[in-house]
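Reminder to self: tokens first, then the designed residues, so the page reads top to bottom the way the pipeline ran.
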């Protein structure tokens, strides 16, 4: 019998258990969102039997549907099922804190030693090309298996390259969902398993209300509140609220918010993104690096809290209603179109800003090609390829 799904009383021992397990995962979960889900299944389902496989699969489906970092949201949701909302918070802290600390330290190191022209920093920028290309290939194979979805992905990439704005991405996601409903309205829909949750629908509706209220109010208040930390909260909350597809897809949105406004240079942005590949845990902790570069540790704290806060609100709001919603055929059809658009968004990001900012010479392209080969065909872990690229950058660039 599985031990927690509807557990009502939570104690300090339970919360400490969640913290210890999630911290261990935060220290060892290399390889990106797909790998994280594998680590979670091994730890929470195989070893500890906190959920059964069907409930876990249902939870993953929910988090794939919502905007935000899917693997982090799965960890938050499991924490909530095990230890209530506080359990979700503790699970998030354990999983994200190691990579947040590492990236803040890297930001201080970058600024202290003025690394803009360093060869190993350029190597980090180049390895980002390989990592994003690998994500495009992997996600494309799973999310665009037929001609209509390939077409949606290509049109999405062209659209974002021509109209590279955050608002454009929102329009694109909505249009792709509509296309999915039209193209796949007659597709067979599978039976969905039931997920037992203890969060009431009243709390869920409150969370949804707060989510949308902040999304509307923060940009308005920013016009009258001239404070850099408030502006950072608005930027990162908004990005965390509208990113579909997880970690890598956050890259173009963040770049368009902080680079054109001169909050951070394009070179420093990509150097941090490359460094983020070398640490375990969620890629959304890249926000900690950006916040630290912009406004020291206070900026890092605000950026991390802001970019993950929508995930908490969305999980709390969605869990009580997900069984009903995801069984609806039109929702499943829309999701097919949205997932195809995600591939296109990532493809556009691969060209601009990743490729155009990092690859300037034949040597740059050669290093990117070698890193891609090591990732895709040699199956080396991303952190090892990042370290190898940084070393090669020191020697040859």
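Designed residues (397 positions):
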């Amino acid at each position: 019998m599985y031990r927690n799904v509807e557990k009502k009383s939570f104690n300090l021992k339970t919360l400490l258990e969640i913290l210890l397990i999630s911290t261990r995962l935060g220290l060892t979960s290399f390889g990106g969102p797909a790998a994280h889900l594998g680590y979670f299944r091994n730890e929470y389902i195989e070893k500890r039997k906190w959920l059964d496989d069907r409930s876990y699969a249902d939870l993953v489906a929910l988090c794939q549907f919502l905007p935000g970092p899917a693997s982090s949201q799965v960890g938050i949701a499991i924490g909530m099922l095990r230890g209530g909302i506080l359990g979700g918070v503790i699970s998030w802290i354990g999983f994200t804190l190691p990579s947040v600390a590492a990236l803040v330290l890297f930001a201080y190191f970058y600024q202290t030693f003025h690394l803009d022209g360093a060869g190993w920093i350029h190597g980090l920028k180049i390895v980002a090309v390989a990592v994003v290309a690998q994500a495009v290939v992997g996600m494309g194979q799973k999310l665009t298996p037929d001609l209509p979805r390939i077409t949606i992905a290509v049109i999405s990439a062209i659209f974002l390259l021509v109209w590279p704005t955050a608002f454009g991405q929102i329009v694109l996601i909505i249009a792709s969902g509509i296309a999915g409903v039209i193209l796949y309205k007659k597709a067979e829909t599978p039976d969905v398993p039931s997920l037992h949750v203890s969060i009431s629908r009243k709390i869920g509706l409150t969370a949804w209300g707060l989510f949308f209220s902040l999304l509307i109010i923060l940009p308005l208040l920013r016009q009258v509140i001239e404070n850099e930390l408030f502006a950072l909260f608005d930027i990162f909350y908004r990005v965390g609220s509208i990113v579909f597809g997880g970690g890598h897809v956050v890259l173009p949105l963040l770049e368009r918010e902080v680079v054109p406004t001169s909050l951070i240079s394009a070179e420093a942005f990509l150097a941090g993104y490359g460094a983020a590949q070398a640490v375990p845990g969620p890629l959304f902790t890249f926000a900690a690096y950006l916040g630290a570069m912009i406004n020291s540790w206070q900026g890092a704290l605000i950026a991390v809290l802001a970019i993950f806060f929508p995930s908490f609100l969305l999980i709390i709001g969605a869990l009580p209603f997900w069984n009903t919603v995801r069984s609806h055929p039109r929702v499943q059809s829309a999701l097919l179109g949205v997932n195809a658009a995600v591939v296109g968004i990532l493809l556009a990001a691969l060209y601009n800003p990743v490729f155009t900012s990092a690859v300037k010479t034949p040597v740059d392209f050669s290093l990117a090609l070698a890193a891609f080969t090591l990732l895709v065909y040699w199956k080396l872990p991303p952190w090892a390829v990042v370290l190898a690229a940084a070393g090669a950058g020191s020697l040859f660039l």
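Confidence is low (pLDDT under 50) at residues 1-9.
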